[in-house]
Design a protein that fits this description.
The structure holds two protein chains of two kinds.
Chain A: H1 22-57, H2 61-66, H3 82-89, H4 91-124, H5 130-139, H6 145-159, H7 165-189, H8 193-201, H9 206-217, H10 219-234, H11 238-243, H12 251-262, H13 266-287
Chain B: E1 4-12, E2 18-27, E3 32-36, H1 43-51, E4 58-63, E5 66-67, E6 78-81, H2 93-103, H3 108-121, H4 137-149, E7 155-159, H5 167-184, E8 187-192, H6 195-201, E9 204-209, E10 212-217, H7 219-224, H8 229-234, E11 241-249, E12 255-259, E13 262-265, H9 268-273, E14 284-289, E15 294-296, H10 297-300, E16 307-311, E17 314-317, E18 322-328, H11 336-345, E19 359-365, E20 376-381, E21 387-389
Parallel strand pairs in B: 3-8, 3-9, 6-7, 7-8
Antiparallel strand pairs in B: 1-2, 1-4, 4-5, 9-10, 11-12, 11-14, 12-13, 14-21, 15-20, 16-20, 17-18, 18-19
Helix pairs in contact in B: 2-3, 2-4
Classes of the chains: A mainly alpha, B alpha+beta.
Membrane topology (chain A): Multi-pass membrane protein
Organism (chain A): Gandjariella thermophila
Keywords (chain A): Cell membrane, Membrane, Transmembrane, Transmembrane helix, Transport
């Protein structure tokens, strides 16, 4: 309290946003207009082929062979569900669709379960060599799949995993884990330590802290991870091409063989492709509600 | 409810940093003990060791009659209120408060009853279904309190629970915490850097500096009889004025303390209270004067040997009283040890020279004073309440 008398006059600052000039505002409006226009163009570029595919899947093979899909707007009578009915009777496509589900669901669930547990340990449990282990896992991110195809093939040959769904799943899990652990570890590490300590004081053991505090708070990260991993595995062709056989082929592989054998059998291709697109879309919209901004808001001061 | 006993408690971090040294404290059953000190003094570390969130390097912690050094937090049966509140963001107020009870697998009905009771005490009944992010700062703070209270623990540990609230709310919550603690009678260890909180809340206050306990006692004792310059400076606001002075004995055997041209006579009561002072006759001492022990001589009357002359450099009207800053010509306190104590403790720093080339003192005058800036003033000092410290060690001069 020995503050010496100040001779400077007190300056009064009027709070409030600085007034923007007319030019700045104009640029702002113009800028956001440009952004919107670009977004619109991108959306059209992506949506038109999808729409075309969808419409083609609703037209007969002969219609598709004689006229473009856009003629449907002038002659809507072309539309039919026949292709879809035929698809349901196509055992090869339906089996491969089933295979895709059998591959994708475990490959996603396993990655999330293993990665969440590992990420919690790497973020919050003190054990020797923890930081090195983290670095090692992050380092694995740079490993390209292609490098591993041949060694893993030999390994699978040894263990008889070739051509099995389990083999494909294991490969996806192994290569999905580094990114998954990295993403979740970083998210978990960002949870305030106070929350975990509060739970500890409240009587929770490690497992309960994980299940009742970290996991619910980490839900947004887990949801985005689930979407990434699901899409990656669902759309995979390369891994399936190397490790799956006819009986374990996913839909991407089955559609590809259609393409090779018949060239223009668009009725099967369009319908099958659309079917394989619908599921990821459903998954995306089901999970995107978990992308809630600021889930942590209000927990700590 | 039970006592908490710290014996020789010490904490050394992995990198060799020492946070707490040989801390001995007995917190009695139902007592409200405040650990206070500047930031980095080890008070939070000590609290976290009691909580079990930090490993104990040396010494023991007993809660009840049980040594808990190796007992994990969850089994210590203590509850903590965090500075950040640490509310679970995904749970509503009810579930936040009920969390600890549900982990203990209490019957649903019992949980419901206890949460509602606590919500009633804290006036949270209307917010039980809301998530923390929809609550105000004060409400969040109360939820954090509720989470501790509902468990009916052996002891409450509070880590600066009010520091995130605005000034007005802080005063309200301070009163509420005091009331709740008294009603429940739970042993409480409360950490703060705010000396006002320490003084108003604590049955006893423990002052820490650099991990070392300086003094522990009831608030008034710390204020009246600080053991050293650090405590003297830390307790009280504005801080105690300190200045370098010399103790003289006149021909009439009377003791007086002189700083340059001014001097104050020591009443007999001071010498009776501080017999050791006689050993300092003719030697330098550090003189401490609390702002409250000074008054405008125009109001109380000047008295020979108890009045300082100066001119008012700055006048701060606080409404209830007026703070007057005035320089006196004296050399500042010299030794490093003392200087460190002074600056750590937030005492009025004697270092920087005032406009008139001396030490600037602060006096708390009655609002009836008509002193204005630049005016010559006479300041009456309550000489019975002067403080004296050894200039080498900074310790108070009392008996030995």
């Amino acid at each position: 309290m020995t503050a010496l008398p100040t001779t400077e006059p007190v300056r009064i600052v009027v709070a409030g946003a600085p007034r923007r000039s007319a030019l700045a505002r104009l640029l702002g409006v113009f800028g956001s207009g440009v952004v919107r226009a670009v977004l619109a163009v991108v959306a059209v570029f992506w949506l038109v082929p999808v729409l075309g595919l969808f419409v083609a899947s609703l037209r007969t093979e002969s219609d598709n062979n004689t006229s473009g899909w856009w003629t449907v707007f002038t002659a809507p009578a072309q539309l039919t569900l026949r292709n879809y009915r035929a698809l349901l009777d196509n055992t090869e496509i339906m089996r491969s669709f089933g295979n895709t589900v059998l591959i994708t669901v475990p490959a996603t669930v396993l990655v999330i379960v293993i990665a969440a547990l590992a990420a919690y340990a790497l973020a919050w449990i003190d054990f020797p060599g923890r930081d090195w282990l983290t670095v090692l896992i992050v380092g694995l991110l740079v490993m390209p799949i292609q490098v591993a195809l041949i060694p893993i093939s030999r390994l699978y040959g040894l263990f008889g995993l070739f051509g099995s769904i389990a083999g494909v799943v294991m490969f996806h899990v192994a290569f999905g884990l580094p990114f998954a652990v990295f993403l979740l570890r970083n998210f978990f590490a960002g949870i305030p330590a106070d929350l975990l300590e509060a739970a500890r004081m409240d009587g929770a053991k490690e497992w309960l802290i994980f299940r009742r505090v970290v996991l619910p708070i980490g839900l947004p990260a887990i949801a985005s991870l689930a979407i990434f991993q699901f899409l990656w595995v669902w759309n995979d062709l390369l891994v399936a091409l190397v490790f799956a056989d006819d009986r374990s082929a996913p839909i991407t592989l089955a559609l590809r063989s259609q393409l090779r054998e018949f060239g223009t059998n668009i009725d099967v291709l369009a319908t099958g492709s659309f079917l394989s697109m619908v599921v990821p879309l459903v998954v995306f919209f089901a999970f995107q509600r978990f992308f809630v901004q600021g889930v942590l808001a209000g927990s700590t001061k | 409810m039970s006592s908490v006993v710290l014996t020789g408690l010490g904490k050394v971090y992995g990198d060799g940093t020492r946070a707490v040294t040989d801390l001995n404290l007995e917190i009695r059953d139902g007592e409200f003990l405040v650990l206070v000190g500047p930031s980095g003094c080890g008070k939070t570390t000590a609290l976290r060791m009691i909580a079990g969130l930090e490993e104990v390097s040396e010494g023991t912690i007993e809660i009840g009659d049980r040594v808990v050094n190796e007992v994990p937090s969850r089994d210590r049966d203590v509850a903590m209120v965090f500075q950040s509140y640490a509310l679970y963001p995904h749970l509503n107020v009810f579930d936040n408060i009920a969390f600890g009870l549900s982990l203990r697998k209490l019957p649903k009905k019992e949980i419901e009853r206890r949460v509602r009771e606590v919500a009633g005490i804290l006036e949270l009944q209307d917010h039980l279904r809301r998530k923390p992010r929809h609550l105000s700062g004060g409400q969040r703070q109360r939820v954090a309190m509720g989470r501790a209270i509902v468990r009916e623990p052996q002891a409450f540990l509070m880590d600066e629970p009010l520091s995130n609230l605005d000034a007005k709310l802080r005063v309200q919550m301070r009163a509420q915490i005091a009331r709740i603690q008294r009603d429940l009678g739970v042993t409480t260890v409360y950490v703060t850097h705010d000396q006002t909180e320490a003084m108003t809340l604590g049955d006893r206050v423990a002052v820490l500096k650099r991990g070392i306990l300086q003094q522990v006692g009831p608030p008034q004792e710390l204020y009246d009889r600080p053991v050293n310059l650090f405590v003297a400076g830390f307790i009280g606001s504005p801080g105690m004025n300190v200045l370098g002075a010399t103790l003289e004995v006149g021909d009439d055997e009377r003791y007086r303390v002189r700083f340059c041209s001014q001097s104050l006579d020591l009443p007999d009561s001071v010498l009776r209270e501080r017999p050791a002072l006689r050993r300092y006759a003719g030697r330098p001492v550090v003189l401490g004067i609390r702002p409250e022990d000074m008054e405008d001589a125009e109001i109380v009357g000047a008295e020979q040997g108890a009045t300082l002359r100066s001119s008012a450099e700055l006048v701060e009207a606080m409404g209830s009283d007026v703070l007057v800053h005035f320089p006196v010509d004296t050399k500042p306190v010299t030794t490093d040890g003392v200087r460190e104590l002074v600056s750590d403790g937030g005492v009025v720093d004697p270092g920087p020279l005032g406009a008139a080339g001396g030490t600037v003192l602060v006096g708390r005058f009655s609002p009836r004073t008509r002193v204005f800036e630049g005016q010559s003033i006479e300041v009456r000092v309550d000489t019975a309440r002067l403080h004296f410290f050894d200039p080498e060690t900074g310790s108070s001069i009392w008996h030995e």
